[in-house]
Design goal:
The chain has 326 residues and is of the alpha/beta class. 42% of the residues lie in helices and 16% in strands. The protein has 14 helices and ten strands. Helix 9 packs across helix 10. The structure holds ligand AN7.
């Protein structure tokens, strides 16, 4: 069954009258991570959300938000975005036949994400200012009624995103002991908390990783100074018995490298904040831990290139190649 509405229709705010706008999102792999498990002394799994259609977890919420927007008869949607929401909104709006206006902080979104939203037909407007300022503007245009907001302040987004918790519970046969994930605006923390609560299979300890330097972090997807869901997200973490870890960029990058080189999973730097936060948590030996990897590494090829050795250039000569690679 393809798509989160098809798979979880009875647990989402849709009816038979809702036109389903889907790109086959969800049903993402839950990958065992044997080397990192050994290192942390736990049973670690990676929820690989980079496998979603536009390369990030945002698609789970966007299918519901865009379906409801189409059902409501709106003509245009708007979001402010550090890049992934914009790409997802662009794709689902194209699929729905709606116009998408995406606001991005100028100079602060990776090249791949800017190109992705544009190629998918969104109108990309870059704002001289921060993501937070762009979000204020997007909310104002939503209030004026010209556009419907599809940021995670749109409640349908959180509804869709909660389905990731359902998938984890089904695959593990229950909730994990610990769930680790990045904390940007906090919508995804809320979504998982709700998903586990609704699955009624126990609630994991939530371990959320935020950038210590929120306004300037190189993890550009989570360069969000004022998390829109701060109150609810931090309350959910506290009530779970978990914690928010504030992480220097170097810890996020180290976790990102470890995921790539130890487990073969290339996520974007922001996505590694969950693993970095686990590095600071006190984990019970043998605990069953799921770490959510929110976006694909190809989303930030600039960082990937910067953090890799320069390719060696040689003539197509076996001896030269053998020498260069030794
Ligand atoms: C890869 O696209 O906010 O804590 O505008 O792209 O739910 O905000 C992206 C956020 C984590 C943080 N990982 O999730 C946007 C945007 C990746 C992300 C987050 C984002 P929230």
């Amino acid at each position: 069954m393809h798509g989160v509405i098809a798979r979880y229709r009875d647990r989402l705010p849709v009816t038979a009258a809702t036109p389903v706008v889907s790109l086959g999102e969800g049903s993402t792999p839950l990958l065992a991570a044997p080397r990192l498990s050994d290192r942390l002394g736990v049973e670690l799994y990676l929820k690989w959300e980079g496998a979603n259609p536009t390369g990030s977890f945002k698609d789970r919420g966007m299918t519901v938000a865009m379906s409801k927007a189409l059902e409501a008869g709106v003509a245009a949607v708007i979001c402010a975005s550090t890049g992934n929401t914009a790409a997802s909104a662009a794709a689902y709006a194209a699929r729905a036949g709606l116009q998408a206006l995406v606001l991005q902080p100028h100079g602060a979104v990776t090249g791949a994400k800017v190109a992705q939203a544009g190629a998918l037909g969104a109108r990309v407007v870059q704002v001289r200012g921060s993501f937070d300022q762009a979000l204020v503007a997007a909310r104002t245009l939503d209030e004026r009624g010209t556009h419907v907001l599809v940021n995670s302040l749109n409640p349908h987004r959180i509804e869709g995103q909660k389905t990731a918790a359902f998938e984890i519970v089904e695959e593990l046969g229950g909730a994990p002991d610990v769930l680790a994930l990045p904390y940007g605006g906090g919508g995804n923390v809320r979504a998982y908390a709700r998903g586990f609560a609704e699955a009624a299979a126990g609630s994991p300890l939530l371990v959320a990783g935020e950038a210590a330097e929120r306004a300037t972090t190189l993890a550009s997807a989570i360069r969000i100074a004022e998390p829109a869901h701060a109150d609810e997200a931090t309350r959910a973490v506290r009530e779970s018995g978990g914690r928010v870890a504030s992480l220097p960029d170097e810890e996020i990058l180290q976790a990102w490298r470890d995921l790539a080189r130890e487990e073969g999973v290339l996520c974007e730097p922001s996505s590694a904040a969950g693993l970095a936060a686990l590095g600071r948590a006190e984990l019970a030996p043998g605990a069953r831990v799921v770490c959510v990897l929110t976006g694909h590494g190809l989303k930030d090829s600039e960082t990937a290139a910067r953090e890799s050795a320069e390719p060696i250039v040689v003539d197509p000569d076996p001896d030269a190649i053998a020498e260069a690679s030794s």
